[in-house]
Design a protein that fits this description.
This protein is α+β, with helices and mostly antiparallel strands and 218 residues long. 24% of the residues lie in helices and 23% in strands. The radius of gyration is 16 Å and the shape is globular.
């Protein structure tokens, strides 16, 4: 992916947001890519990893999500907390190479991460707090999440991703050839989002996938 083809992203996230965003061009359609052994191993939360989440990480991520008025509890808790709860009895289920890498890094780092199909979002792209009345469908069965007050990725059609649940319309599938990944870090955890990004990049490299940083600008 050349610098000229990278999407532009406007960010208005407030002083707590430590956002890291990158794009990847896949060497083949996602359905044809296998998940590497290195990534698969990290779907087990008991596996040693470069980063480990704790209660302080959980609390500070929740504070980031609350800053705009959102309540990150219950079914609206950060995606990283959902992954940890889901992995307590068995490793996370493999979905595809892109989502598996996202889940592995989020599980261990405690940083919520969004991965969207770059060809399914329409510019202009921006990150901002969603206004009152904002919602979208987040799964194939048509369930809707109210994202008012939550930091979200917006495209021309409205909000489509955040630290809780991404929109169904922007999710990856077997035909995906390029992805946009957002690590929803907080300045209250200095360096954690960057460390998660760097580990993410290393894991992608095990599958021949690169990462082109969009935000913060390199």
């Amino acid at each position: 992916m050349s610098a000229a083809s990278l999407p532009e992203l406007a960010v208005d996230g407030g002083e707590l947001l430590d956002l890291w965003v990158f794009a990847s061009q896949l060497p083949a359609p996602l359905g044809q890519l296998g998940t590497s052994h290195q990534v698969s191993a990290m779907l087990d939360h008991g596996e040693p990893a470069p980063l480990a989440a704790d209660d302080q990480v959980r609390q500070r991520i929740r504070a980031l999500l609350r800053a705009g008025g959102f309540k990150p509890t219950g079914r609206s808790k950060p995606a990283s907390e959902y992954l940890l709860a889901a992995s307590t009895e068995a490793p996370l289920r493999s979905i595809n190479a892109a989502v598996d890498t996202c889940n592995a890094v989020s599980l261990h780092s405690g940083v919520p991460i969004s991965v969207v199909d770059l060809e399914r979002v329409r510019p202009p792209l921006r990150v901002a707090v969603a206004p009152a009345g904002s919602n979208y469908v987040f799964n194939p069965s048509g369930q809707v999440i109210d994202v008012a007050g939550l930091l979200c990725l917006f495209d021309a059609d409205g909000p489509c991703a955040n630290a809780v649940k991404d929109a169904q319309r922007s999710k990856t599938d077997g035909e995906t050839r390029s992805t946009l990944v957002l690590l929803w870090g907080t300045t209250a955890l200095p360096g954690r989002a960057e460390a998660a990004y760097r580990w993410y990049r290393e894991l992608l490299a095990t599958m021949g996938i690169g990462a082109e940083l969009i935000h913060p600008r390199p």
